[in-house]
Design a protein that fits this description.
Elements lengths: L4 H10 L8 E3 L2 H11 L3 E5 L12 E4 L2 H11 L3 E2 L2 E2 L3 E5 L5 E10 L4 E7 L6 H7 L4 E5 L8 H10 L5 H20 L2 E11 L5 E3 L2 E5 L8 H4 L9 H8 L3 E4 L4 E5 L2 H13 L6 E4 L6 H12 L6 E8 L4 H14 L6 E7 L2 H9 L4 E2 L3 H12 L4
Parallel strand pairs: 14-16, 16-17, 17-18
Antiparallel strand pairs: 1-6, 2-3, 2-6, 4-5, 7-8, 7-10, 8-9, 10-11, 10-12, 13-15
Bound molecules: guanosine-5'-diphosphate and manganese (II) ion.
């Protein structure tokens, strides 16, 4: 689960990390009132669950309350990477000399919490990671003792903080970030930028926290921060229909029953030279209605150039799924080519139903994946 910046900021502040104040506004007039209270230049920031808001025009400075109102009017309602801005954070604007990057992530490779820092923080951090990987410092926290003091200090030195006082403050922030990460069962806790002010002190200007949904039951206070209005439409629909859906960057939509089969399907698509557009598990005993919803969700992604159905009928009956596909295609007009590999319970009945449709049949998963890859390239 993603937290909004202001929620993440409040969480990190509870661990003693220095953050900027300010408040959240849903109207331009509210933004103005907050700016009046702050009584100086402010920064108005879109609260949406995407990165790169700054580059997308979702972060703007305002010198006066009137300007804050005007800037908030521009940002509220703005569409950033498919999400509509419903709220802005109005915080005191800070002048600074440098931007640092600092985060804690779960590193599956080393099975540790990895602390990552860079002297070259700010909006270009992804570019830095690509073109100058040596500018990114990584230190794994001790698996049972946590982030040790000497590790936090080493992180500071390795990003070039040589002043004793500054390195100490950085080490305190890194340790606090580590604790916030572990105690809230996060999968990411990030500060970018952590700025160095003229007096040498550090301040977190932007916070990002992702929480592990499987552990939310242990944190009712954090679970209560969930903002359904901020969820992409497709994910909300999937959650309500009890479908597990994760959007990816490829162009082959996948509809599969069972998480393991869905993972295998993505692997075989990749093996065949394609890229999956999503992970989607319709679950066991998927009804016609559910199949229809799943197909609508898959096709709502404009990148999808082909769809692969990979259904293994056990509890799920293949003919029921076939009826769902046919019902969905009647209601969702589309020219996207579709490949179906349906096997298992009632497969003959299912295949007979689909023989009438435009679906491209496949007998095996390998054949299905190859046909889907070809179809996505316009070669079928
Ligand atoms: P992101 O683009 O979604 O990561 O949003 P950020 O909150 O990190 O803001 C993007 C950029 O806006 C930062 O890297 C800063 O350069 C700038 N920015 C944000 N807050 C302030 C501020 O208070 N003062 C100044 N001068 N710049 C800011
Ligand atoms: Mn940022």
């Amino acid at each position: 689960m993603k937290l909004h910046e202001y929620q993440a900021r409040d969480l990190l502040a509870r661990y003693g990390i220095p953050v900027t104040g300010g408040g959240v506004a849903v109207t331009p007039a509210e933004a103005r009132a907050i700016a009046e209270q702050i009584g100086g230049p402010v920064v108005v920031k879109a609260q949406v669950h995407v990165g790169g808001r700054g580059k997308a025009g979702g972060v703007k400075l305002a010198q006066t309350p009137a300007e804050a109102e005007q800037v908030a009017r521009q940002i509220l309602g703005m569409n950033i990477k498919g999400l509509t801005v419903e709220k802005v954070l109005v915080a005191e604007a800070v002048s600074y000399e440098r931007e640092i990057y600092l985060s804690a992530i779960l590193d599956r490779g080393s099975k540790r919490v990895m602390m990552i820092a860079s002297a070259e923080g700010g909006v270009e951090i992804e570019e830095v990671a690509k073109t100058k990987p040596e500018a990114i410092v990584k230190i794994p926290a001790h698996p049972t003792m946590g982030l040790l003091d000497f590790q936090a200090r080493e992180l500071a030195f390795r990003i070039g903080l040589r002043d004793g006082k500054q390195a100490r403050q950085f080490a305190q922030i890194a340790s606090a970030l580590y604790r916030a990460f572990v105690e809230s069962d996060a999968s990411l806790a990030e500060i970018n930028p952590l700025v160095v002010k003229a007096d040498g002190s550090l301040l977190a200007l932007d916070s990002k926290v992702l929480l592990d949904e499987s552990a939310l039951f242990r944190h009712p206070d954090l679970a209560a921060l969930h903002d359904p209005s901020a969820e992409p439409e497709a994910e909300r629909r999937a959650r309500e229909a009890n479908i597990t859906y994760i959007k990816l960057d490829g162009n082959i939509g996948c509809m599969v029953n069972g998480a393991g089969l869905a993972m295998a399907t993505m692997d075989v698509i990749k093996l065949s030279g394609g890229e999956p557009a999503n992970f989607l598990d319709i679950g066991g005993g998927a009804s016609k209605e559910k199949v229809k919803t799943a197909l609508q969700i898959i096709l709502s992604d404009p990148n999808v150039k082909a769809v692969l159905f990979n259904i293994f009928g056990g509890i799920t009956r293949v003919d029921e799924v076939a009826r769902g596909i046919i019902a969905a295609l009647e209601e969702v007009p589309t020219n996207v080519p579709m490949v179906a590999r349906l096997v298992g319970t009632n497969e003959e009945a299912g295949r007979a139903l689909l023989a009438e449709s435009k679906l491209i049949p496949a007998a095996t998963l390998a054949e299905g994946a190859q046909k889907a890859v070809a179809a996505a390239r316009g070669e079928l």
